[in-house]
Write a structure and sequence with these properties.
2 copies of one chain form a homodimer.
Chain A: H1 2-11, H2 20-30, E1 34-36, E2 43-45, H3 47-66, E3 70-71, E4 77-79, H4 80-83, H5 87-93, E5 98-103, E6 106-114, H6 119-129, E7 138-147, E8 161-171, H7 174-195, E9 201-204, E10 216-223, E11 229-239, H8 241-245, E12 250-251, E13 257-258, E14 261-268, H9 270-279, E15 296-300, H10 308-321, E16 326-328, H11 335-344, E17 349-353, H12 355-359, E18 362-367, E19 373-377, H13 381-406, E20 408-410, H14 414-424, E21 427-432, H15 436-446, E22 449-454, E23 473-478
Helix pairs in contact in A: 3-7
């Protein structure tokens, strides 16, 4: 019964050219990444989906700690009065909070919201423990889930609950805090480019798009296979707005009371949605080897023939001993079913070993990304397979980079921007005067939001193509998830 | 200012003989483990407290995965109707749920409770994905926090929110599920005894004390320094009660519909409370070396003298290179302050190095548990320090085991049990007829709850000392946290 179900499911994936949204949902469910729960927008991460998150976690957590950050755990509930302490922040988040009003059998004297983000909690804590310049910086991170009561929801891309990490730091000087903000953006960019093979554009969010309460929000923007944008990680500089509102005064070296400068930065399971939409194809998920929970799947062919299963097991064990995340599929499913299943799950490399291969002291390695077959001598597995995995990693990055580079179009009028977006999708780059009005006009007339003011600026012209006034910077526009 | 504060805080710890409860709270706050949040019973785990949890997590997560369990993530919210599907379960948990009634600005059509535990969520998910015997077993775990709206709360010991792991598994046969239940109890016992140096008594909970909805609850019980009991980890066998209620039918090998047998098991940050109350002393926390976030603190003495700081740094680096979690304290606090601070934090070994030591090519190692001083030649650090750390580990276990062994008293009447408890505390062991009535009587008259029916049974007599009827088993009684 399950077998039958599974065979069906491999066949049932929708082509991305037919319906990209349905393709995405199919991959999420049929690669066993998620299941739907009884509450809209709250998704179950199944073992394979969670293993992908653990792989990202492990990379980020290591980087955070190397850079001197410490993990902590904050409460999941925020009293309404605490959320209200910073004006811009509460305006941004209150409309999408979920509220606890009853504890045990008693109505609560004050509503508590499930954290949508934890700036207020960190600041409240810091107001208890920060006294002197000696206590700074405090560089904290937490791994948790947060809730935002969104109207439309999709697995990974928009959940009412999602897993993330949120870094929160305070520093004695503005300079140090600004440095931290940019450093953490770089960590996210590294995570995307080096681990996930997802090229990014780094930049500054406009005032309209920045985080509620922040002075600056920096972002990494990725381009998906359908040429839409995915904001993949953000890092915020807060100045001392919150620390004054929460009265986190500290005695500086001259014994004068100062207020620390603050940052926060987050990356969430949303990035898994990005990973799927960057590398996936019509056979399912495609995972970059550096982060794949299973890097090599070993399949015995004609497994009933003498010695085949044993040889396949031997290969798995040799690869594991060489530090490769290898797994053998010794179930009684057919080879065809196994091919489809492990392709669906995006395992970067498939090794096939059958009686004929054994005679020739070889096996077949098939790349998931381009289906290229290589015959490998069994004597050189430990040497060749890591190289093949790195080739897949590089191949995925190059392909995604090509997609990004080929779909960034300069435009010199609103009309041109609109037409380019409609005809090609992708990112449209224009000059910009910096006014909200022009940003709104682009949204209303060309259905694009500003993605970022990239760090890598180009001087396309001198004027804003929307209003004709002098331009202040180049900006990217796009249709975003 | 901070310096002054901290010096005060080291002095302000209450002696455990004077007020054990206050001593515990002092250690929690003054060793920088926790802070109080704005919501009663929701505690902040500060970096040092969270690092202790990470150390326990890392041990358990490794063991779970070795045994074939996979991590997943379930939603934090449970619809009221889902919680109600298993009768005993909802009766046990509904009275202490926190309820979300508003999402965004809208009242919700159905109340959602923040998970107090996730059996219902796992079962709901399994009802979607389990079809055949090929899908079994499913051996899942999740790391998360849960909420239980308790009246009285204390850091670690009783929080309305606490961090834990909850394992949930389903199996094709009762035998396999029962094996899993006991296996996971053994993992918890190993965690306590081998990692945390906390000796345990393993046993079965009585019907009265078992988990809501379980057929059997197995427990490990530890004895604290004040001779009270701490239930430190539990593993539950559910039979097929939930799987039938949630209709998780599967086609067995004969294609007949069967219902799987279920287990769940959990360990929480409560164990950190146990760790504090098992090993701590009047100078603060004492951590077992195998789990201590910092195993060795290196202090330069007369750090302004030439070469001292460099030598201390060299020692730190050598220890780190040898795989020891070492840290140097190069702040400008006084040596006395540093001694007190790192003792408060329970670092198992302190290394002091000053100009005179350097002349003699040695350093001083001071054990946290018994303050024993050893002079170590600088040539043999890598050889001697791991041994010293193991000595501390063993010393802590032996001391705790002695406390446990010396405070288990057999009793042959209710009166004797009561007197023994009042005079000595500890665990009172008696025979028991198995009736709830006698269990209630022990509670009402001797203020003790049943801790467990130990696996290691003794035949103290033939009759229940409470009612005089024939005894079925030996049972431990105690006053519990």
């Amino acid at each position: 019964m399950a077998k039958e179900n599974k065979e069906k499911k491999v066949e049932q994936i929708t082509d991305m050219e037919v319906d990209f949204t349905q393709w995405f949902t199919d991959v999420c469910t049929k690669a066993d990444l998620v299941d739907y729960s009884g509450v809209k927008g709250l998704f179950i991460l199944r073992p394979y989906g969670y293993a992908i998150w653990e792989s990202i976690q492990s990379y980020l957590d290591g980087r955070f700690k190397e850079l001197g950050h410490e993990n902590v755990s904050m409460p999941m509930l925020i009293p309404e009065s605490l959320l209200q302490k910073e004006k811009d922040h509460v305006e941004g988040f209150a409309p999408e909070c979920a509220w606890v009003t009853v504890g045990g059998s008693e109505p609560l004297p004050e509503r508590l919201c499930i954290r949508p983000t934890s700036e207020t909690l960190f600041c409240d804590h810091w107001s208890h423990v920060v006294h002197s310049w000696r206590d700074l910086p405090m560089k904290y991170n937490q791994w948790c889930s947060v809730l935002r009561w969104e109207k439309t929801t999709r697995p990974f891309l928009r959940g009412r609950e999602f897993l993330w990490q949120e870094g929160h730091t305070i520093h004695a000087t503005e300079e140090e805090a600004r440095e931290e903000t940019l450093q953490m953006l770089d960590v996210y960019a590294d995570c995307c480019e080096k681990l996930l093979a997802m090229p990014v554009i780094k930049g500054d969010k406009t005032n309209k798009e920045k985080f509620a309460g922040a002075e600056n929000t920096y972002t990494i923007e990725c381009m998906m296979h359908d040429r839409k944008a995915l904001q993949s990680g953000t890092s915020h500089y807060f100045g001392d707005g919150f620390t004054r509102a929460f009265n986190i005064g500290f005695a500086d070296k001259t014994n004068k009371i100062s207020y620390p400068f603050q940052t926060s930065w987050g990356m969430s399971t949303r990035i898994i949605g990005g990973l799927i939409m960057t590398h996936g194809d019509n056979n399912g998920l495609v995972l970059p080897p550096r982060m794949a929970p299973i890097q090599v799947i070993v399949l015995p062919i004609a497994a009933h023939k003498p010695g085949v299963t044993e040889k396949a097991e031997e290969i798995v064990n040799r690869l594991k001993a060489a530090g490769i995340r290898a797994k053998g599929d010794f179930t009684d499913n057919s080879p065809g079913w196994k091919f489809a299943n492990w392709e669906m799950k995006g395992v970067p490399l498939r090794i096939e070993i059958g009686p004929k291969d054994m005679e020739n002291n070889q096996c077949v390695a098939v790349r998931r990304d381009n289906r290229e077959k290589t015959f490998l001598s069994l004597d050189e597995l430990e040497a060749r397979i890591p190289q093949l995995l790195e080739d897949v990693q590089q191949g995925l990055f190059d392909k995604a980079k090509k997609n990004l580079d080929e779909h960034c179009y300069p435009a010199f009028s609103l009309e041109e921007a609109k037409t380019l977006q409609e005809e090609h999708g992708g990112f449209i780059k224009t000059m910009w005067c910096g006014d909200l009005e022009c940003e709104m006009k682009m949204k209303e007339e060309a259905c694009m939001t500003s993605r970022c003011i990239p760090f890598a600026q180009e001087q396309l012209s001198d004027v804003c193509p929307i209003c004709g006034k002098p331009a202040k910077c180049m900006i990217y526009w796009g249709v975003a998830y």
